Amino acid sequence: MARILYDLRGIDEGLRFSPYCWRVKYALAHKGLDVETRPWRFTDKEALAFAGHDKVPVLVDGDEVVTESYDILRYLDRAYPEAPLLGEGVAEARARFFKHYAERSLAPAMMRTIIMDLLNAIHPGDRDYFRETREKRFGRALEEFHSPAKGLAQLDAALEPLRGHLQESDYLDGDAPAAADYLVFGSFMWARCVSSADLVSNADPVYAWVERMLDQHGGLGRRAMRVTDIEGAYR
Asked: For residue 150, which of 123, 192, 114 has the smallest C-alpha distance?
């Protein structure tokens, strides 16, 4: 049976922007595993009922159904131990730290910078749902939450630990990328797919790392559709 990954789509079926799904797609490529991606929308909860879950990513691998990006990476290491992603002990603890760092420091800053671009990139049938759920989370209208100047300043500060690490090593996991890199890079792919905003200066070591990550696995990230590729997306 083919491996299937349920993957969030946007205004075009080819626009796939979930940071959590990008983590998994890079992890699968790292393992050399083929996967069929199935487009999913925020409001299509019924399509994931079989998994007892209401969000992506959901990976179906034969009889196995795995949800949540980090748990999928752990599953891949158990099921396909060659080319490990997480490792054990200190290595897994490092990866778990970068997971929380991406979700709690980087993503909020990026969200504040690109949220109106993100809204525009979402399928029209999902926009009311997205607005309602995010405004409830933020406690304000999306237009009030949106503040690129504040978001970029917040992101610049949040990137300091990453800069320090990447001045000494090409990747977060050392000489080659693995789980820590994929867990963080998913957020950069999310922003890249839905927005043309320049989040990082090209003189920044983080920028050079992003470029290296885009080229990994045959240019997996660089080949991905962006909202700017879609004719009329901003009309």
From this structure: 114
